[in-house]
Design goal:
Oligomer: homodimer
Number of strands of chain A: 2
CATH class of chain A: Mainly Alpha
Shape of chain A: globular
Radius of gyration of chain A: 21 Å
CATH architecture of chain A: Orthogonal Bundle
Structural class of chain A: mainly alpha
Distance between the termini of chain A: 66 Å
Largest interface: A-B, 73 and 72 residues
Order of helices and strands of chain A: HHHEEHHH
CATH topology of chain A: Arc Repressor Mutant, subunit A
Number of domains of chain A: 1
Largest sheet of chain A: 2 strands, antiparallel
Number of helices of chain A: 6
Amino acid sequence: MSDHEQQPLPPTSRLSGDALPPVEQHARQYETVRNAHETELIEDYVELIGDLLRHRGEARAADIASRMAVSQATVSKMIRRLNELGLVTSRPYRSLFLTEAGQNMAETSRARHDVVLHFLRALGVRDTTARIDAEGMEHHVSDETLAIMQRFTETHQT
Amino acid sequence: MSDHEQQPLPPTSRLSGDALPPVEQHARQYETVRNAHETELIEDYVELIGDLLRHRGEARAADIASRMAVSQATVSKMIRRLNELGLVTSRPYRSLFLTEAGQNMAETSRARHDVVLHFLRALGVRDTTARIDAEGMEHHVSDETLAIMQRFTETHQT
DNA sequence: CAAATAGTTTAGCCTCGGCTAACAAATATT
DNA sequence: AATATTTGTTAGCCGAGGCTAAACTATTTG
């Protein structure tokens, strides 16, 4: 092996950014994100089912598939999971329905989603962009931040 | 089967929320989120490696494991992937380094992260919460929104 | 310098969330 | 009513991202 190895730099000039958080706190941040990821998809499905029921009166697997840009097989499998989790009831070739628990989840998600979306719009983000960003952000916004966003939106009516 | 089946409601009273977006747009929203998810973890690793290098002078697998609250085996596997993607160089039992591409990614991620974090603080979110939220949000904020966040932060200095 | 400890890798397992292909059931069309 | 179309399910595949256990390498310490 060569002696001219690439060497780590000294703890070095901080040109940007904050200090590293203490290990445990840092770890908790990542854990929080990982946990969010686990529930995220479930919530998206439930929320969408709720929206379809509300706006269309029914929620069919095919609609979910096309709106999520996912195969029907994937939706079918997912519905089985939602069923096992006690979030939806389903009978083949019939519309899906949300259980009580499902309805709660849908409402909560919808509410978070709306707060984030309206906040982004109040901030001045274009509608299309706001929708995309809101879809991704909604699962990662804490209650604290959500409350602040809501207040902001209210005091910055267009 | 019973005749008293649970029936879909009529297109119904909208108590809250916006109308459903057209199918194709809706689909693009979900696709965007799914794509973000694919790169998210990669970016988190690269960003963390960059931070460790900058603040500590070296980035060891063990540090990454404890800061991400993940097993060393998981980190080891991930490093192989990062290697294949041409983002890091590694030699067994030595510090990791970022390739040119890796450095670019790390800088970009770091920058996004900082913008979001400072924005949240400027909004009035407590530091600990802001850090957690920023970690989750950073991958889902479009350039457009990012620019707006930056302007907001600048004009709302504490 | 030998032994203990710390760091890293590999093997093998698991779950999730995608996919396609094949089939089955319901609905629509002719 | 027969056929075509749409809708839904099942089986089986894949990659990602976790895990534990076991083996191996490096470093530290007695």
